[in-house]
Amino acid sequence: MRCSRFAPALAAALVLAAPALAFDGTTKPIGGPGGSRYLDECRPGDALVAIDYKAGKDMDMVTGACVALHDGWPTGKHYRLATRGLDNDNGRFNPDGTIVCPRRMVVQQIHVTESAVGLVHSFWLTCRNLPAPGLGDSKATKSNGGAGGSPGSADCGPDSYARGLLIRGDARINALGLICATYRPPPPPPQPPQPATPADPPPFAIDNDVHAPFVITNG
Hints:
By secondary structure, this protein is mainly beta. It has one helix at 7-17, and strands at 25-26, 30-31, 36-41, 47-55, 59-70, 73-85, 96-100, 106-114, 120-128, 135-137, 152-155, 160-169, 173-182. A hairpin with a 3-residue loop joins strand 12 and strand 13. It is elongated, with a radius of gyration of 32 Å.
């Protein structure tokens, strides 16, 4: 069955209905068998936010893109990881582009359709805010013909995010997955010091041992 334009919305609904457990590690790759295995990781503490691609009938090339995190928010410019696969169409026009998370979101899940020959046909991303609740889907990749089956998903879980891309492939892309990390919120800012309470003044000293001279007057 060919992937329909409703598939991203359906996948997001399934994420909300049955979320996976958060974890640190690598998901199962989604797609066909075979291909060399690559683990392309972002810099420590950074997050995956986009994937560049080039496709013919199926997926020819992919490149992960990461960004730094500041207090859980993606900050600064994207930087690219290694490119996997080959340009199998010798420069002829075929679909390419960048599948990117919505603004201020990072990757939590990747959805992949597999072609009849065991290659990645298409994919899209489900992304999340880290400090605040919220999910959003990217657009899906395009292809020059061909068809993919029902999508499968690799999910980092509701308390995690992708910090890299798992790729299996050689001349073309056989399967895709994610390298995940659990999100740990930054510690709350320290409380300002409380002003010191001034000490009570010492009690006023009263001398009760006062002996005034006794005065006698005749008038």
